């Protein structure tokens, strides 16, 4: 994947972060989306370890040793930041106050199932806060490379790995396309510049609906 | 980065509350009771309300205004001993009253605000409080299932608020306010003081604005907020 | 009852409030016990509406409109007072952090049952916080007149009114005597100056054990 | 009126922890981890501990000291991805690890601290998280029963404390600390700063001293509390 395609994917996801939202960005690609949100957009970033209104990341020499985000990055406060305990932090999540949770994934299924915390026998560091973020945000977006390092599809008909949450993913952003998951199944919404349908079908492990109209490009 | 602005007018805020709505009211006695929001609720007049409040205030204030105006169908509360109107209307069958032990009321509201379905406690086991509650075994002990208590609206009184809805409360005026703010579909705050974003230290915020929908600044406080002279 | 006997009852109950305790005093007689606690004794008074470290009652002209105790009295802060919400306040109660809860009563039974919140058809203002205080304090004391206004016993073999809590009262203070409730039943511990056993038996609706030794007087 | 004094020494405080004890450790990453209390626990050396902590810190700090010293039999946690020792010992069967979703871990601890037995939530329904948990119906919906998680001891890191044990926490160092302080039979606090009674405003106290048993003042902070240079 060209870094160009990655940048366009991040930018496309950032466009769905609109004024007024409270948003949680997972570690990795989701966090990178932030750099592409327009500076003037009023949004509240939530971090599981007890912050609403997360500010920009600081270099170690400017860091506050007591202020990290859930990924361990030294972040800052902005006017209006609030700190609270971990129970309140997940009260925000479970009570539906997150307008959007953006997560990474090992696998996403056409039915909205998500697997992103465990590869039996290989990787099981624990689920952290992923399960509640994936199950309870009002909208759940997955942002990931379209295929794994070996080129295998990560969008599948059914997940093969242990699930993080069942049927809660609303939208998938990849370097090749944007899909929505609806009651009628996986819907192709947009396609990346430089990708085509044939290529996309080959790289996707589940059938998807293609609209009759021209597909927006990103 | 900047945070969303949630300031609104009291008329607009309360106009969302229609007939038959469930409404949580903060406060324990006078402290923390959102009198101005309640007064606007009386002025706009939706009826058949379910009111959830620790107590029924006293004659001539707060919940009493709603009762006297015939807007309350049901009251969920822990104690109404200081309000003769509430007791009379309960005895006459004019309102339905559900009594909940005070800490269980607080916890049913908090559990709702934390996005859970219920909790298990041994409070009330073997007393009339048990009636109608399923018994649940937890690690070999018996408890009662208490259900989450949500509402359509929460009306909250805060000491200070910023435009994002971060709140701080004064002294014993905190009580049910932060819990109810978390447990409603839509939460409306009246604040004695609006302060600029950042004026409340992040460590001193009692409730994050993530739980708040509309913040209304109070004009000069009416007398009802003052010390009761007995 | 002479006010003298009442004062001695209050003083006797106060003697059980010892250094280091966290204590909740119910409305009425329990609150009055406070005036008889030695000034130097370090104790933490808890109030259900969200205070630990309740300070002295203030006159209306000195009162803070936002600072009342659970009985509605205008109280004050002392060095070390903390305020919290009602859920935390009852977390203190239910998790066993109250060393002592002193409550009033309509009826107490020889088995430790307490009835103090409802007289069906006559008085049912709601239970407030009484149920949790009576069930979860490490020690539960009842302080009350020995008989009701008509001279009927309030200490009974079994309560006739709806219960507040089942079997949790440890000690009863009245103007006539101090009783403990143990696995072996109701135990007379002390008797008031001016009361005698015959009188006490006549005024008590349950049998009680009398120790072989001389009874302390208070 | 004056409040009880709970100050003590670190040696005496930790000496109460014996073999087989369950110990909650505050902290999320470095912030809020009670490194000095943990170091004393390593020095005194009780074994076969059940450790409850959000994460296992990183190599060479905090929980890792206890793991390397062979004192941990069981770890209840939400994530150990930053500690290779923990992952290796888990894979080798040298320690037993129970993974709990982070918010469910927080809530199981809080429910214990609030003196309740368990709660019902739909988190994890239909996923492997459900295994072994009874299904409970609440108002016609299905949830899972989660049990209260208590411990014999909680080791807590605070920014400021007074002699009664009223605490305040700094920034994101609050995390699990106040919850764990409520959920243990005995709670020991290390504080960066002891302040006089009354120096913490009653409204600014994050956790009431009613939950605290012993307060230990820290000497100059060791480097492990500092910013991690990567």
From TrEMBL, chains A, C:
<keyword id="KW-0808">Transferase</keyword>
<dbReference type="GO" id="GO:0008410">
    <property type="term" value="F:CoA-transferase activity"/>
</dbReference>
<protein>
    <submittedName>
        <fullName>3-oxoacid CoA-transferase subunit B</fullName>
    </submittedName>
</protein>
<dbReference type="InterPro" id="IPR012791">
    <property type="entry name" value="3-oxoacid_CoA-transf_B"/>
</dbReference>
<dbReference type="Pfam" id="PF01144">
    <property type="entry name" value="CoA_trans"/>
</dbReference>
<dbReference type="InterPro" id="IPR037171">
    <property type="entry name" value="NagB/RpiA_transferase-like"/>
</dbReference>
<dbReference type="InterPro" id="IPR004165">
    <property type="entry name" value="CoA_trans_fam_I"/>
</dbReference>
<comment type="similarity">
    <text>Belongs to the 3-oxoacid CoA-transferase subunit B family.</text>
</comment>
Automatic annotation (TrEMBL), chains B, D:
<dbReference type="InterPro" id="IPR012792">
    <property type="entry name" value="3-oxoacid_CoA-transf_A"/>
</dbReference>
<protein>
    <submittedName>
        <fullName>Acetate CoA-transferase</fullName>
    </submittedName>
</protein>
<dbReference type="InterPro" id="IPR037171">
    <property type="entry name" value="NagB/RpiA_transferase-like"/>
</dbReference>
<keyword id="KW-0808">Transferase</keyword>
<comment type="similarity">
    <text>Belongs to the 3-oxoacid CoA-transferase subunit A family.</text>
</comment>
<dbReference type="Pfam" id="PF01144">
    <property type="entry name" value="CoA_trans"/>
</dbReference>
<dbReference type="InterPro" id="IPR004163">
    <property type="entry name" value="CoA_transf_BS"/>
</dbReference>
<dbReference type="InterPro" id="IPR004165">
    <property type="entry name" value="CoA_trans_fam_I"/>
</dbReference>
<dbReference type="GO" id="GO:0008410">
    <property type="term" value="F:CoA-transferase activity"/>
</dbReference>
């Amino acid at each position: 994947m060209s870094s160009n395609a990655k940048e366009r994917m991040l930018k496309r996801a950032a466009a769905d972060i609109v004024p007024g939202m409270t948003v949680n960005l997972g570690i990795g690609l989701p966090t990178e989306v932030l750099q592409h949100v327009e500076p003037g957009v009023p949004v509240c970033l939530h971090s599981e370890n007890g912050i609403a209104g997360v500010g920009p990341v600081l270099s170690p020499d400017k860091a506050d040793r007591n202020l990290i985000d859930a990924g361990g990055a030294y972040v800052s406060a902005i006017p209006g930041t609030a700190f609270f305990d971990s129970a309140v932090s997940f009260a925000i999540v479970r009570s539906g106050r997150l307008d959007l949770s953006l997560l990474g994934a090992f696998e996403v299924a056409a039915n909205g199932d998500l697997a992103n915390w465990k590869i039996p026998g290989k990787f099981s560091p624990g689920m952290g806060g992923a399960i509640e973020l994936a199950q309870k945000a009002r909208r759940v977006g997955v942002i990931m490379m379209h295929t794994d390092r070996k080129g295998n599809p990560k969008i599948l008909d059914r997940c093969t790995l242990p699930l993080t949450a069942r049927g809660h993913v609303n939208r998938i952003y990849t370097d090749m396309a944007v899909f929505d998951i609806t009651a009628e199944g996986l819907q192709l919404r947009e396609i990346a510049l430089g990708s085509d349908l044939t290529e996309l079908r080959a790289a996707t492990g589940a059938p998807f609906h293609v609209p009759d109209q021209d597909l927006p490009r990103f | 980065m900047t945070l969303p602005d949630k300031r609104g007018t009291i008329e607009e805020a309360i106009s969302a509350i229609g007939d038959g709505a469930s409404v949580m009211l903060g406060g324990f006695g006078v402290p923390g009771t959102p009198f101005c929001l309640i007064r606007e609720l009386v002025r706009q007049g939706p009826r058949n309300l379910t009111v959830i409040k620790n107590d029924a205030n006293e004659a001539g204030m707060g919940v009493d205004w709603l009762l006297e105006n015939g807007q309350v169908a049901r009251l969920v509360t822990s104690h109404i001993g200081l309000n003769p109107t509430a007791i009379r209307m309960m005895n006459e069958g004019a309102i339905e009253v559900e009594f909940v032990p005070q800490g269980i009321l607080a916890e049913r509201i908090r559990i709702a605000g934390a996005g859970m379905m219920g909790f298990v406690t041994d409070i009330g086991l073997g007393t009339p409080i048990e009636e109608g509650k399923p018994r649940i075994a937890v690690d070999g002990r018996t408890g009662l299932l208490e259900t989450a208590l949500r509402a359509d609206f929460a009306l909250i009184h805060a000491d200070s608020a910023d435009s994002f809805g971060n709140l701080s409360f004064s002294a014993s005026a905190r009580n049910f306010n932060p819990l109810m703010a978390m447990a409603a579909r839509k939460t409306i705050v009246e604040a004695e003081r609006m302060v600029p974003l950042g004026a409340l230290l992040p460590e001193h915020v009692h409730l994050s604005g993530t739980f708040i929908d509309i913040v209304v600044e109070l004009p000069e406080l009416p007398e009802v907020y003052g010390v009761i002279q007995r």
